[in-house]
Amino acid sequence: MQINKQLIAIIILASLLFSAIGAALFFFKKNQQTQKAKNELVTIYIAKDDIPKDTLLTIENLAQTTIAKEYVLNTPLTKEEIIGKYTNEKIYKHEIFLKQKLDTQIVKEEKKILDFKKSSYNMKFEIFKNPNYALVQGEYINIISVYPEGTSDNKGRFENFAVEYVASNIKVLGFIRNGKHESLSITKQPVKKVVDKKTVEEIEEVKSDEVVLDIDLDVLLKLTENYNKGNQLWMVKIAYDETKDNNPEQTKEEIKNEIKTMASNSQVSTPKESSN
Q: What is the end-to-end Cα distance of the chain in Å, rounded?
């Protein structure tokens, strides 16, 4: 009976020993696998150079590098998941591409048109002799009519031109491109082109078609009348303060000089002030 108890004890101890050895081997193997996984190198795509916001990504923007798997905090994006996407913020050189920094299209900023005090009316940039695409919402312009005086030469050219103020202190409310309101006169847009017989999409700066102005109906009719007569319409950006009484006559000479410069650059004879 005593022998059976000793045998049972030996068997139990042996079982515990084998279990401990098995567990030790299991954790040793697991640790080796973990270390191997940590030291394993993975290939990821990074930015070849600094990439501005709203860039359409192509293979030219990509570079490859290898990194230990333990340092990869997010699932690396594949080439197919990157190419053809737009960046929604700047990506710096050698930065890893992250899903949250890419979009399937350009992220549109909320477009708005400023409130008007008189009446809101949009005019095509092309009706002006000197369309100013550097205008910003909230700025002011004067609109001037330039027309020939006297008789023309044998080639139909006039020596003298007269200048008449048509509208003063006109506020720029916004812009229109393809029938849609824009807060900027020039915006970045995807443009399709044919390159090497292939249609590709590139991001380009696109000008607005029209400028939205805060303008009186009477002034609008006067502008239309001048344009229909064949007079040249010029826009001149001015400094204007809504909180003060602004007298257009105070800047008359300054604007007249600017018109002279612009007319000269456009090969128009130097204008003189209209007696009207």
A: 136
Give 256-273 as a 3 state SS string: HHHHHHHHHHCCCCCEEE
The answer to whether the beta carbons of residues 62 and 90 sit under 8 Å apart is no
The pTM of this model reads: 0.53
**pLDDT higher than threshold 80 for residue 227:** yes
Who contacts 189 (Cβ-Cβ below 8 Å, separation ≥6)? 106, 203, 204, 205, 206
In the numeric block, which tokens belong to residue 182? 């824009």
Chain CA centroid to CA 124, Å? 22
Which pair of tokens denotes residue 24?
Answer: 């030790």
Determine the length of the chain: 276
Distance CA 55, CA 265 (A): 36
For residue 6 the two structure tokens come to 């000793």
Q: How confident is the model at residue 28 (pLDDT cuts 50, 70, 90)?
A: low
